[in-house]
């Protein structure tokens, strides 16, 4: 079983994204390499960014997408607190 992946879709111009960023940093400090955290700047126009945005139907930032073994576990729109993220990810790393 692979480790869970958390994709943080953000943009530099997004105020709430700046609130989410330190929470993601704290999550990374607590969970370490048990979770693969990827930050995806939707403000940068690239082929990969467009593909991700289309695949996960990203309408707003911040949006967090959590996957496990290639399957979507949860999509969270708006700023999420550390406890909520831990409650979703902890069971996934214990599988």
Supply Rg: 13 Å
Residues in β-strands, percent: 25-35%
Q: What structural class results from the helix and strand content?
A: alpha+beta
Please write the string of helix (H) and strand (E) elements: EHEHEEH
Q: How many helices in DSSP terms?
A: 3
**Helicity, as a percent range:** 40-55%
Number of strands: 4
Task: Flag low-confidence runs.
Answer: none
Mean pLDDT: 94
Strand order of the largest sheet: 2-1-3-4
Q: Span between N and C termini?
A: 8 Å
**The biggest beta sheet, please?**
4 strands, mixed
Coarse morphology: globular
Structure, described:
The chain is an alpha+beta fold and 95 residues long. Helices cover 40% and strands 26% of the residues. The protein has three helices and four strands; from the N terminus they run E-H-E-H-E-E-H. The chain has helices at residues 15-31, 47-55, 82-93; strands spanning 5-10, 36-41, 63-68, 71-77. Strands 2-1-3-4 form a four-stranded mixed beta sheet, with helices on one face. Helix 1 links the parallel strand 1 and strand 2 (36-41). Helix 1 (15-31) packs across helix 3. It is globular and about 35 Å long.
For the structure shown, list the relevant keywords.
95 residues; alpha+beta; 4-stranded mixed beta sheet; globular
Concise account of the structure shown:
The chain has helices at 15-31, 47-55, 82-93; strands at 5-10, 36-41, 63-68, 71-77. The protein has 95 residues and is an alpha+beta fold. It has a four-stranded mixed beta sheet, with helices on one face.
């Amino acid at each position: 079983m692979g480790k869970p992946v958390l994709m943080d879709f953000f943009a530099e111009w997004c105020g709430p994204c700046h609130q989410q960023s330190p929470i993601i940093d704290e999550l990374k400090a607590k969970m370490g390499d048990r979770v693969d955290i990827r930050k995806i700047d939707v403000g940068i126009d690239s082929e990969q960014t467009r593909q991700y945005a289309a695949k996960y139907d990203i309408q707003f930032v911040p949006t967090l997408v959590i996957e496990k073994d290639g399957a979507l576990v949860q999509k969270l729109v708006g700023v999420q607190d550390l406890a909520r993220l831990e409650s979703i990810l902890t069971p996934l790393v214990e599988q």
